[in-house]
Protein backbone atom coordinates (compact mmCIF):
# COMPACT_ATOMS: atom_id res chain seq x y z
CA UNK A 1 0.00 0.00 0.00
CA UNK A 2 1.34 3.39 -0.92
CA UNK A 3 1.15 6.15 1.71
CA UNK A 4 0.80 9.64 0.37
CA UNK A 5 3.22 12.28 1.59
CA UNK A 6 0.37 14.45 2.88
CA UNK A 7 -1.09 11.53 4.87
CA UNK A 8 2.30 10.79 6.35
CA UNK A 9 2.80 14.43 7.35
CA UNK A 10 -0.64 14.52 9.00
CA UNK A 11 0.06 11.28 10.85
CA UNK A 12 3.46 12.52 12.05
CA UNK A 13 1.92 15.80 13.23
CA UNK A 14 -0.75 13.91 15.17
CA UNK A 15 1.91 11.62 16.64
CA UNK A 16 3.98 14.61 17.78
CA UNK A 17 0.89 16.22 19.38
CA UNK A 18 0.13 13.00 21.25
CA UNK A 19 3.75 12.72 22.42
CA UNK A 20 3.60 16.29 23.80
CA UNK A 21 0.34 15.50 25.60
CA UNK A 22 1.86 12.34 27.06
CA UNK A 23 4.92 14.25 28.32
CA UNK A 24 2.69 16.86 29.96
CA UNK A 25 0.63 14.21 31.70
CA UNK A 26 3.70 12.26 32.81
CA UNK A 27 5.23 15.46 34.22
CA UNK A 28 2.11 16.06 36.33
CA UNK A 29 2.36 12.58 37.80
CA UNK A 30 6.10 12.44 38.30
CA UNK A 31 7.43 11.42 41.69
CA UNK A 32 8.77 14.91 42.35
CA UNK A 33 5.46 16.54 41.47
CA UNK A 34 3.45 14.15 43.64
CA UNK A 35 5.84 14.61 46.57
CA UNK A 36 5.53 18.38 46.21
CA UNK A 37 1.72 18.19 46.25
CA UNK A 38 1.81 15.91 49.28
CA UNK A 39 4.17 18.30 51.12
CA UNK A 40 1.78 21.18 50.38
CA UNK A 41 -1.09 19.11 51.79
CA UNK A 42 0.96 18.43 54.94
CA UNK A 43 1.62 22.15 55.37
CA UNK A 44 -2.04 23.02 54.75
CA UNK A 45 -3.24 20.57 57.43
CA UNK A 46 -0.69 21.99 59.87
CA UNK A 47 -1.76 25.58 59.15
CA UNK A 48 -5.43 24.69 59.58
CA UNK A 49 -4.83 23.08 62.95
CA UNK A 50 -2.72 26.06 64.08
CA UNK A 51 -5.51 28.45 63.02
CA UNK A 52 -8.01 26.39 65.02
CA UNK A 53 -5.65 26.46 68.01
CA UNK A 54 -5.49 30.27 67.80
CA UNK A 55 -9.29 30.40 67.70
CA UNK A 56 -9.42 28.34 70.86
CA UNK A 57 -6.87 30.55 72.63
CA UNK A 58 -8.86 33.62 71.59
CA UNK A 59 -12.00 31.94 73.00
CA UNK A 60 -13.70 31.93 69.59
CA UNK A 61 -14.52 28.22 69.85
CA UNK A 62 -15.64 26.07 72.75
CA UNK A 63 -13.52 23.28 74.20
CA UNK A 64 -15.68 20.37 72.99
CA UNK A 65 -15.81 21.59 69.41
CA UNK A 66 -12.11 22.44 69.50
CA UNK A 67 -11.08 18.97 70.68
CA UNK A 68 -13.19 17.23 68.05
CA UNK A 69 -11.95 19.39 65.15
CA UNK A 70 -8.35 19.60 66.35
CA UNK A 71 -8.06 15.83 66.75
CA UNK A 72 -9.36 15.30 63.21
CA UNK A 73 -7.01 17.92 61.73
CA UNK A 74 -3.95 16.58 63.54
CA UNK A 75 -4.77 13.02 62.47
CA UNK A 76 -4.89 14.20 58.86
CA UNK A 77 -1.61 16.08 59.35
CA UNK A 78 0.21 13.09 60.84
CA UNK A 79 -1.14 10.68 58.23
CA UNK A 80 0.04 12.95 55.41
CA UNK A 81 3.39 13.63 57.08
CA UNK A 82 4.08 9.92 57.53
CA UNK A 83 3.03 9.20 53.95
CA UNK A 84 5.37 11.94 52.73
CA UNK A 85 8.21 10.60 54.86
CA UNK A 86 7.68 7.05 53.59
CA UNK A 87 7.43 8.19 49.97
CA UNK A 88 10.56 10.29 50.28
CA UNK A 89 12.49 7.42 51.87
CA UNK A 90 11.35 4.91 49.24
CA UNK A 91 12.09 7.23 46.31
CA UNK A 92 15.63 7.87 47.57
CA UNK A 93 16.46 4.24 48.30
From TrEMBL:
<feature type="domain" description="VPS37 C-terminal">
    <location>
        <begin position="12"/>
        <end position="93"/>
    </location>
</feature>
<comment type="similarity">
    <text>Belongs to the VPS37 family.</text>
</comment>
<dbReference type="GO" id="GO:0006623">
    <property type="term" value="P:protein targeting to vacuole"/>
</dbReference>
<feature type="coiled-coil region">
    <location>
        <begin position="8"/>
        <end position="55"/>
    </location>
</feature>
<dbReference type="InterPro" id="IPR009851">
    <property type="entry name" value="Mod_r"/>
</dbReference>
<keyword id="KW-0653">Protein transport</keyword>
<keyword id="KW-0967">Endosome</keyword>
<keyword id="KW-0813">Transport</keyword>
<keyword id="KW-0175">Coiled coil</keyword>
<dbReference type="GO" id="GO:0006612">
    <property type="term" value="P:protein targeting to membrane"/>
</dbReference>
<dbReference type="GO" id="GO:0043162">
    <property type="term" value="P:ubiquitin-dependent protein catabolic process via the multivesicular body sorting pathway"/>
</dbReference>
<protein>
    <recommendedName>
        <fullName>VPS37 C-terminal domain-containing protein</fullName>
    </recommendedName>
</protein>
<dbReference type="InterPro" id="IPR029012">
    <property type="entry name" value="Helix_hairpin_bin_sf"/>
</dbReference>
<dbReference type="Pfam" id="PF07200">
    <property type="entry name" value="Mod_r"/>
</dbReference>
<dbReference type="GO" id="GO:0000813">
    <property type="term" value="C:ESCRT I complex"/>
</dbReference>
<dbReference type="InterPro" id="IPR037202">
    <property type="entry name" value="ESCRT_assembly_dom"/>
</dbReference>
